[in-house]
Write a structure and sequence with these properties.
alpha/beta, Methane Monooxygenase Hydroxylase, Chain G, domain 1, Pectate Lyase C-like, 2 domains, seven-stranded parallel sheet, 25% strand, chaperone, TBCC, TBCC_N
């Protein structure tokens, strides 16, 4: 029985009025079929675009990673001028790869993101190791600092540099960066600590085993590492790549960066400007608000860092311990506006 006969039998339509209603029913059914076909087509196209993006990311990331690895391998046995050139090229490519990963975060799965970040961290470690082996520097890097910088920070920073150097592993590396490429403070309690732009100079900054301290880092570090921080207030200028936080508690942190990785941290406030996304793991009671610290050369340091001031994803936090889709993680919150700190001590 065809559709027209079926509708006529069901409703007992007759004459012109019945024919009009049958036609209306047929048009509605036809429209529904068209809309369903369009919906299926859009879903298929959307899935295809997502797959294409994922495939493009995977191929591009893999190709660039291999290229960097080959550059580092080719440094072995080469003369100093060639090594310097290849390390510079590898450094630029690594920074570009970090940016490519940051820009791709929104469509990557958690697994893909973890794998890519681990691969990038391995590249950064290999780069630091190759630089340390092929282009060794003098033991005490701070001797090259200007007299003005020494005068500003002599009471604290020289001791801190020695602490960092003596507390580092025998290989001279901490988290993949050579000790000669680092500056920072270590093993201090109840101190007010500062670093100037001249001291930082896009180096890796390491702060470790600090308690009840206030830290002001004016400048643009390459990376910032915070380890074993207790009851501290740490304010930092724009970090050109990543901030790594591990074993921090009862503290207040403030910084702009490309990426934030936070582990084993609790009861800590983070005033953040991040151009990709923030990641937490094994954390509890962490709260976020937009970056609000200011100092006279902040705009200049933003320019040096290369960060986009108009792009801040401070509310986009991925909790690797909470994968329940559609349900907010209980391990982090947004700091209510009335409770946010707006006045920072010098």
């Amino acid at each position: 029985m065809d559709v027209t006969a079926e509708i006529s039998q069901e409703d007992g339509f007759a004459g012109e009025s019945g024919a009009a209603k049958i036609k209306e029913r047929l048009e509605k059914r036809n429209q529904a079929r068209i809309e369903d076909a369009e919906r299926r087509k859009e879903e298929k196209e959307s899935q295809s675009v997502a797959e294409e993006k994922d495939e493009f990311f995977s191929k591009t990331f893999s190709r660039e990673r291999v290229c960097i690895e080959e550059l580092l391998s080719s440094c072995s046995g080469a003369d100093r001028a060639v090594v310097t050139q290849r390390l510079e090229e590898a450094t630029v490519k690594t920074v570009q790869l970090q940016k490519f990963l940051n820009d791709s975060v929104l469509f990557l799965t958690q697994y893909e993101l973890r794998q890519s970040q681990a691969a990038l961290q391995k590249l950064q470690t290999s780069l630091a190791e190759t630089r340390e082996t092929a282009l060794p520097k003098k033991k005490f890097a701070f001797r090259a600092r200007t007299k003005a910088a020494d005068k500003v920070s002599a009471p604290v920073s020289d001791t801190a540099q020695a602490d960092v150097a003596t507390s580092a592993p025998a290989s001279g590396e901490v988290d993949g960066a050579a000790a000669s490429e680092q500056c920072g403070f270590s093993n201090m309690d109840n101190e007010f600590l500062t670093k100037t732009s001249e001291e930082i100079q896009k180096r890796d900054v390491l702060l470790t085993h600090l308690s009840n301290c206030k830290v002001r880092l004016v400048g643009s570090p390459s990376t910032l590492h915070l380890k074993h921080i207790d009851s501290c207030e740490i304010l930092c200028g724009p970090v050109s790549s990543s901030v790594f936080v591990d074993h921090c508690r009862n503290s207040t942190l403030s910084f702009p960066c490309q990426q934030l990785r936070t582990h084993n941290t609790k009861d800590t406030q983070v005033y953040l400007h991040v151009t990709s996304r923030a990641i937490i793991e094994d954390c509890h009671g962490v709260s976020f608000a937009p970056f609000s610290w200011s100092y006279p050369t902040l705009q200049e340091d933003f320019s040096v860092s290369g960060l986009d001031q108009d792009r801040n994803n401070w509310t986009q936090v991925d909790d690797f311990n909470w994968l329940a889709a559609g349900t907010p993680s209980p391990n982090w919150t947004v700091i209510p506006e009335p409770d946010r700190k707006t006045n920072w001590d010098p």
